[in-house]
Amino acid sequence: MVKLSDIIETIKPKKIIGKIEGKSISETIALNSANEVDDILMWVSEKNQTQLKEIKHGVIICSATSEIPDDTYCTYLMCENPRMAFQLVLAHFFLPPRAIGIAKNAIIHETVQLGKDIFIGQNAVIEAHCIIGDFVTINHNTVILKNTIIGTNVKIGCNNVIGSENKFLFRI
Description:
The protein is of the alpha/beta class. It has 2 domains: about 1-95, Udp-n-acetylmuramoylalanyl-d-glutamate--2,6- Diaminopimelate Ligase, Chain: A, domain 1 (3-Layer(aba) Sandwich); about 100-160, no CATH class. The chain contains 2 helices and 18 strands. It has helices at about 5-10, 80-95, and strands spanning about 1-5, 15, 25, 25-30, 40-45, 60-65, 75-80, 100, 105-110, 115, 120, 125, 130, 135-140, 145, 150, 155, 160.
């Protein structure tokens, strides 16, 4: 359970309508008019705002310009960017922490520059003169070819080859 007050402190909504005192959130779900539980967090996009009048329970992150129905028991957190606010709540309170570390059998050339808080998975290979940014995840069995630059906050899935050994990606 996450205190609604902690969520509000994190996303800093422009306006709050409804009860917040003592309220907690147990889970997040897609916008659902069949929901009958008050401790659920949902979000609504601009194009789906008409569905707000069908929702009777829960906490909803919505646009600061949303028209809020009068006959509701919901709590509305009105934000400039509801999608981003919802993503922020998921990342801070509901997703498992990201793994950090380098697998023992990963092969990393000595000239590679590694950022902070990275994850490099089993059997990954990073060739010479690569730069790996901060908060990067390189999953298992992935090869990063020489002279490749990976920016910050990048997630690379399993079984990939990133970069090019050729100077040109096409033939002239």
